[in-house]
UniProtKB/TrEMBL annotation:
Localisation: Cell membrane
CDD domains: TM_PBP2
One Pfam family hit: BPD_transp_1
Keyword Nucleus: no
Family matches, as InterPro entries: MetI-like (IPR000515), MetI-like_sf (IPR035906)
Keyword tRNA-binding attributed: no
Family: Belongs to the binding-protein-dependent transport system permease family. CysTW subfamily.
GO cellular component: plasma membrane
Transmembrane segments annotated in the record for this chain: 34-58, 206-228, 240-260, 290-310, 340-365, 385-408
Domain ABC transmembrane type-1: 202-408
Official protein name in the record: Putative spermidine/putrescine transport system permease protein
GO biological process terms on file: transmembrane transport
Amino acid sequence: MTDTTLSAPPLLTVDGTPLKTRLRHIERLNQFKSLLLILPLIAFLVLTFLAPIAAMLVRSVDNPEVAPVLPKTVAAIQQWNKKSLPGEEAYAALASDLTAAKEDPSQLAEAAKRLNMEIPGFRSLVQKTARNLPMETEPESYKTALVELDERWGDPAYWHAIERNASTSTPFYLLSSLDMSVNDEGEIAKAEPDKAIYLEVFARTFWISAVVTVVCLFLGFPLAYLLATLPTRQSNLLMILVLLPFWTSVLVRVAAWIVLLQSGGLINGALETVGLIDEPLELVFNRTGVYISMVHILLPYMILPIYSVMKGISPSYMRAAISLGCHPIRSFWKVYFPQCIAGVAAGALLVFILCIGYYITPALLGGPKDQMVSYFVAFYTNTTINWGMATALGALLLLATVVLYAIYNRLVGANNLKLG
């Protein structure tokens, strides 16, 4: 007797199409419809979020000012040994480029401004040279003529600055944001002490943000616990008080703190009235005022994530631990707190990220040594119109945010695995 394997015929739809094929087609159609529904949201995110970030990253390395204005000079110094002065060809190319650039004064001014960032005084050198070109009679040596016109053309440092701007992209802004620069040998080196300010600014920004985050955590954790454990009526009333800062403009709150904290303000007046102080305390236009105002503004951002996690923790866990003989404090630390870590981490991350980007509060309540990175971003954007430095500082803040989020994601993920 021979064993035969009977295979069932494939299931067919009414029109004879295999059922499996029809189901795949329906599934693809549903996926396409879902994609069409979220397509407006994707387009909105790309246009309002991803595109500006990409433009900022490109602008932080963009260097379009010098190379288009001095194309012949850039080409002539490609074979330059960078140790002595360039040859006659480079000087002749420079004279030709500056003569041609006089037809577009705005473009020449932008190139001079960019070179002035490399060496102070380069702008006046470019403008002076351009004004004296073309020369009445063509010189036998442009090198000699330009050096006689201004001796700075005999300094290799000025040619090194042109060479560093030969490309339409540059690390200048990003390196400057980290207090570094490219020296005449083409190596990355520390910036001069009088130009090294940004690492200190970043350190100050992260320190202020860390202090505000820690204070918000110590104040917010007990409040969140109270919100999660109080009866509904009292909890709702307390929640309204927590959310009140959201309903008031940040500028209005900062102005209110100036009124409260100034030397003749309500707080100093009350302390003097009760005899706790003999003279007004310096609470405003310094670091103290910045801390007080930022904690007040950002405290709800710490409370709400922690509260949302605590609300989902069953009180039976604590009762079970205490009933088994564990001390209430130890039960809280070993049983309750580990379940709050996700909320604590989310609140701390949110507050810290908001802090590092703050501008109005330090600008109005702080002193000169209390300004954060965002102040310099606004300064380069609105005052000096230096988009390269503004976007470079913004890009570093973005990088810090991404790194913090990656750390948060790793820590919370590891904690969830342990709890699981």
